[in-house]
Structures are given as structure tokens and as C-alpha cells.
Batch of 4 targets.
Target 1
Amino acid sequence: MHSWTPRALYIHIPFCTNKCFYCDFNSYIVEGQPVDAYLDALEREMERTVRELPPETIRKVFVGGGTPTVLTPPQMTRFLASVARHFPVAADAEFTMEANPGTTDPAKLAAMREGGVNRISFGAQSFDNELLAAIGRIHEADDVVRSIENARTAGFTNLSIDLMFGLPRQTLQQLADSVTRALELDLPHYSLYSLKVEENTLFHRLYERGELPLPEEEVEVAMFEHLRERLGGAGYRQYEISNFAKPGFGSRHNTTYWHNEPYYGLGAGAHGYALGQRHMNIKGVQAYIDAANADAGLPRKDTHEVTVREAMEDFMMVGLRLLEGVREADFSRQFGGASLSDVFGPVLAKLQEQGLLERFGVSDEDAGYRLTERGIPLGNEVFGAFL
């Protein structure tokens, strides 16, 4: 099970300009933070990681956060140089960095290009300025447009934006207007997420007090269907429940997660998966720095062995997010010849009876299971059935 060295690399930059009202990611307002000391610690974790688990060629890199683009151009240059020093990144690798609109000036974009970044994912969330303010974003719609223009001028062609739906007081018309603005940008990739009210956020506290006016469930369902119709009609393929792309522009790094494959995870609070073990790093910035500076090894908060059963369940839950589904051959290859029907036969039969899953293919090599049209909006019910 997963005996190969990871070919994907995730690095966490936990700093933001501000904390959005819905965000439970491991992120901290950058003002007053020891950013340079963090980059030092991150390089130490890189050194120890490659010593402990020497990498082969890395084909996918994703720098997330936080907002990695709050780094200054000199910090960005230094950080990306450290990645290149320690990891053999393929010349044709997909190298993604998350960004917030308004945080990517020409100097920073030049540093990113020079350092190997070739894909940018912007957190747009909405093109309605009132909604943006209501969810704690500090950019406006025009900042998204300018950021895309700047990125294209700097030579970036592989660009994506996130949009959110199911926001407080959001109407279907507001979402439709945002989709129109988003499609005018003619990007190769769009990610479309419904709001999840997470613990330890301002929105959760409001929700607990009955002060978060969320759209009714049928409105949120209509929003999701509207997104699917508009993006599909514009020539984008829904390749994963929340992601739409033109041919050849699906997120290669995120496919690592959806195929339940191993990946390096570095930085404060980062998760990693390698050689049958999952780990989570220490979350706090100073605590992470102190742990990385110590002589006690890697800055881990938790490490645990993944059982074969757990890995099989993970395979189904993440793999069925892909609209192409899961293939018998991939399951067999990953789990020493095991078959889906032997392991999950009763669950698969029940979900087929409910019209949520369908079997495809004829031969063992191309056969598998995928969500039906009815099952796509009910994905969470399907995934939970495998636990």
C-alpha cells in the first residue's frame, strides 16, 4: 500500500492580510508575524524531510495558506529558491500558488514566475462587493479583474478562481451575476464551493446564536444546478464535484488527493501522507518555528499508521468526488489485487438501488463506479456510506 515516494508536494504559508469570517484554515494575520523566521524554519523542515524520505522527481507542487502572496518579492524569491534547492521539481511540473486578489503586483508576479510557479488560483469568492464585505473579504470585484490582467501580462496562462455560493443573504440572481462576471474572464479553470459553517469561526458563533441568515436548502440546490448549467454551457467540464475546467486544465495536484495518492506536506499545520502514514504538523507559527529549530526531528503534532481498511474507505470517499468515478483496476493495483465488490459489495449495491451510484465499463480494466446525476448533489451521503 503506497510503497512509492510522493511525487506531489504541498507547502503551507499560514499568513493572511486579514481573517475571513468563514475561514477555519490554519492562518494568521501577517502583521507582526515572524515571517522570515518562519521561512527559515520551513527550509529546515525541507532539509530534514528530504533526508528522511529522499524524493524522486516532483511533478506537482501546491503552495497554499493562508495567502502565500502576502510574502514580499524578496521573501517570495527566497522561499521558491529553497523549494528548488531541496526538491527536484520536473521542468513540466504543475506549480500552483494560491493568491488573494490585490496581493499580486508585477514585482511579486515576476518573482513567482522566476521561481517556477506556473499556475495561480485566486480566491475571488464573489463579484458582489456587498457580499464580499459581508464575508470578511477586503478585496472588491475590480481587484479580481486587475489581478487576472496583471497575471496574464506577467506571462501566466494557467489561472483559476474560486467562487462561493450559499453565502448569507445571497440570492440566486447575485450568484448568476457573479458567474457572468467570472465567465467574462475566460479562464481555463473554476472552483465553485458552497459555504460550510466551520467551528472556531465568526460565522459559527453567529450561526449558534441564530444570527446567520443562510439561503434555504432548495435555493442552495438551485445555485449548484445553475453553476453546473452555466459552466457546462460555456464549454467547461465538471471533472470533480466542485471543479470545472477546459480540456487539459484540471488541477493535477488536487487529483493526487482524489486518487488517494501520497504527498509531502510541509509547513505549520500541514498534512502529509507517505509510506502508509499520515501526519499533521504543529499548527502555531511560533510553536512550529521552535519545533523546526529543535534537534528533535520533524515538527510533527501527530503521526498515525493508516490501516488498509481506512485507506480503502479513503479511496472511495475521495475518488467518487471525481465524476469519472473509481476504477476496479486502480483499486486492485493500490490494494494488492483486492476487488471493490469483495470489500464494498453491499454498500455499492445499496447505493445503486438508491440511484446514487452507477457501474460503468465491461472489462475489469475499464469497469468501475461513479455518481449518477441524482447522486452528484448528494455526494456527501454517498461518501459517508463507505465509513
Note: The mean pLDDT is 95.
Target 2
Amino acid sequence: MAPPRILVVGAGFAGVECVRRLERRLAPGEAQITLVTPFSYQLYLPLLPQVASGVLTPQSVAVSLRRSRRHRTRIVPGGAIGVDTQAKVCVIRKITDEIVNEPYDYIVLAAGSVTRTFDIPGLLDNARGMKTLAEAAYVRDHVIAQLDLADASHDEAERASRLQFVVVGGGYAGTETAACLQRLTTSAVRHYPRLDARLIKWHLIDIAPKLMPELGDKLGQAALEVLRKRNIEVSLGVSIAEAGPEQVTFTDGRVLPCRTLIWTAGVAASPLIATLGAETVRGRLAVTPQLNLPGADGVFSLGDAAAVPDLVKGDGAVCPPTAQHAMRQGRVLADNLIASLRHQPLRDYVHKDLGLVVDLGGKDAVSKPLGIELRGLPAQAVARGYHWSALRTNVAKTRVMTNWMLNAVAGDDFVRTGFQSRKPATLRDFEYTDVYLTPEQIKEHTAATVIRH
């Protein structure tokens, strides 16, 4: 008799933590484990702003899933584009564009999230995101390119527009992105004698009335003061009305000449979740505290893709889409999946949030570990200590620590690789949100598999 087939979709914090625990705790031959991911690495998302600013190299935050030979998980290079929970088949588009059906006995949906966008004219064609490793690398190249192009231009209007940068989203990703990239341009402009440093202007805007409200009023205000001290213009209660290739229109009527719009205004669950036709909570799959999907045999979900009940907060709250929750959910889900295989009781996911850290670059940071409010160097030590300890391998830890030390000693570098220099890349080009199937298309793809079974 063939062992049960476990299919894990997604190699983020949740998916990888689940797979590694399954590998450690399942007996040899007890189950077959398959991991579906377009890239054979786990990306440490919270450090992407430091990749964009050049403090960290891209490979230091991408932990390879193929380094160890002792792991027995089969990796399928591709992305899940539909799931038929009745037929127990997942439709996968491989990186070769071949579409295949992958039968399963148990499926773990850890598909994560995508950048949340709105119906704003020009947004998808002119904005850049900060959700993938390629986007972070591209944004870095693009920002440095604006300095080069402004330096080469004899048109004062063009020069001014290339030196205006807009970041939308006052959460952790947007705030850290604006802070880190502002430090990069401030350091770089010293090496451009023809450019007036006063023309470089960073704007951080958010429709919310407060910056990072989860931090509380004091730390949120402290972060705001740091940004404004660095001459970053923060506009709250404001968003984008229209995004053009050479200008951005704000909802308060301002029109800003600008060639760089970075969109970090939140995330939404992977479009894969919509293909299940199951109940959702704000787009995230509604699961039980045991992380399984009610009414669907062998279906589990976690991380950004799932609305996991927060039993600590209660009152119908769900866990926020953070790395610390995803990692801990991965361990609980693996244990529950093994319990299902062995016909044992499942346990609830319960975890109290350990706090928040925001690295603003240099000596600036705000942190709230275990409810203790910190700012400056102590907050920076906590923020980097937390990120460093959360990296999964010693190789990744060594690379990140070496990068931090090198940056502290040698300062920033301003090397531009020329990545897609002749083809401007936008939100459309990195996250492939238009590849998912409709329920009808899924049924067509899975019909042959059902007949064979």
C-alpha cells in the first residue's frame, strides 16, 4: 500500500516550517512529502527593505531549500493555480509553463499573500512593489538609475521629477522601505557633484490617520519624528488618485512630478484561495483553530493565506499575517497533520504575539518586544537580534551578520547592475496574479485524474 501523499503549497515561513517539522517527525516511509514553489528558496521578507537599500545582498535573505541532502521532500518548481478539494487534486503550472495535476491525500495551503492593489488609474502600469526578491533588487537598481539619469539630464524639469520618490503604505514594509532608501540616496548624492541634494525628496503617504498604529501612539510618533528629521515628507489620510509614468496625483489634489512610485499598501491572500470556493474572511481561508478547513477532507491552511482564529485575543479576532505567527502555525499544523495520519486528536493553535520591531536604518529603530517600548540603539539591537535569530540556517545568519558589519564599516555602495534597465518593470511583472484558474477550468483539468482513480 502506497504511503499517504502530503502536498505543501508555498515555501514561505509557514510552508517551510511545516515541511521541516514533518521531515523530522515522520518515520521513513510513513508519508510522501511534496513541496510546490516557483523558487527553491525561503525568502526572509522582513529584510527586503535592506536588500533594496544595499545593506544586505539578495542571496543573504534567500535560504536555499536544496543545500541539505538529508531532506526527503520532493520539490516541484512551479506554482499552484487551482485546487479541487473534492477530487483531491492540485493543478500546478510548472516554471516550464507545463500544467500538471498533482493528486494528494493531505494538502497544506501555505500560498502566502500578494500585494493588495486598488482600482487606481495607472497603478498597475507605473508602480513598483516590495513583495519579492526580484522586486527589491529591481527597486534598488531603479532608484540609483534615477540619480544617474538626473545627473545626465540637462532638462531641469526632468531632473526634478527623477529626484522625487513616493512610497505608499505607512505599515512596516512601507516605513522601512522609505527610511532605508532615503538613507541610500542621501549617501549616494555626495558622489554626484552636479546634483543639488536639496532636490531629492522622499514622500511616505498612507490613508490611515496614524503611522504604524500597532506600535502605539508613543512609538508611532517616535518613528514619525525620525522620518521627518530625515526630511521625509509624511502625509497621513492621503492616498493616490492616479499614477502616471512621470507624475503622481494625490487624493488631496496635489500633483507631484515623479518617476518612482513604490506601492506597499498592504497584502491580500494568494488568489489560489479563491479557487477553492470555500468560506473566507477578508479573502483569507476560514479555518478552525486546528488549522484545517471545515467540510474538506485533508485540507489544511495557515499563514497569510488563512484566517486563523486568535484564541489569545478572542472575540472573533484572527492572527495577523506576520512571520512569527506563520512559523509557529507551521509547527502546529505539522503536528496536527501527523496526528491525523495516526488517528490522534488535534490541538489548537495558541500564541501570544511577542511584539514588533521596525528597523529604520543606521542607528534608528523602534521596537516593542513583550510590550516594552524601545527606540534608538536599544531598539535597533532588538530588531536586528530578532531578525538574525529567526533566520533558519547558520549560513544565512553568517551572511546577514557579515553584511551588517561590512555596511557599518565601509558604508553604502551605489553599484547599479542594469537589471531590466531598458524595460521598466511594474507590479504586473513580478507576482503573476493573472495565472489562476476558475472553478470550471479546474474541473476540466482534474477530470482526467479523477477518471484514472
Note: The chain has a mean pLDDT of 92.
Target 3
Amino acid sequence: MTISSVLFWALLIAGLVVLVRYLGRRTHPEPKTPEQLLAERFARGEIGEEEYRRGLEALRRHEV
């Protein structure tokens, strides 16, 4: 009786953990804006400050 009770609770907890992880993966993050992508490239050092400012200015010029 004790073994079946422990097994029941272990399966129940494991099932809840799997369910929470599965449901947590289904949410998609917000898509990043072009400004955020440009800022990330600048922060990683992929582009310089001048190129960052030009890109930011170009994006703001073409906003709808």
C-alpha cells in the first residue's frame, strides 16, 4: 500500500512537471523591432557607432 501511494504521488508530480514545461515552450517571444536588432548588433560590436546612428536615422525616417 505504501509503495503504490509513493508511486502515485511521484507519477502525479512528474506529470505536472512535464505539463508545465510543455505549456511553457508554446509561448512565442515578441518579435524584435528593427531598432532592437540594430541596438543588439551595436552592443555585440558587429557595427560601429556611426553605422548604428545612420541605421537608426534611416529606420526612423521610413517609419509609417
Note: The mean pLDDT is 90.
Target 4
Amino acid sequence: MANIPNHRIPDRAMQFAPFAALKGYYETVRKQERITQPKKELGDEEAKIISDTLNTLRVVMPFSFGL
């Protein structure tokens, strides 16, 4: 710190302190990320339909899924 004799180390460190340019922004984003509807549980028949559809797609397009 010999090059900057007028600045003490703690004073210089303050210039690198975090700066909140948008106060309240991150809190607002976190509130928007919350799930507002409960998770829907699939019935056995619905789960089978989805599974069969995905399996059909894997047979038709095997390379698209990286398999």
C-alpha cells in the first residue's frame, strides 16, 4: 500500500463492498418463484398414459433423447 499513502486499508476495502442498486429486487423475485398452486398427484391411469407416450417417443426418436 505504499503507492497510496492517503488511503487506509479499511477505507479502500469499502469501495469493493456489495452495492444494492435495486433495493427489494431480489426479495420480489424470490416471492415470484414460490409455487402458488399445490402439486397435482397423478393417478395410475394418467401416469401410465404419460409413460406410454414417452416410451413411444423414445422408440420413434431414440437419438433425440440422448439414449
Note: The two ends are 58 Å apart (CA to CA).
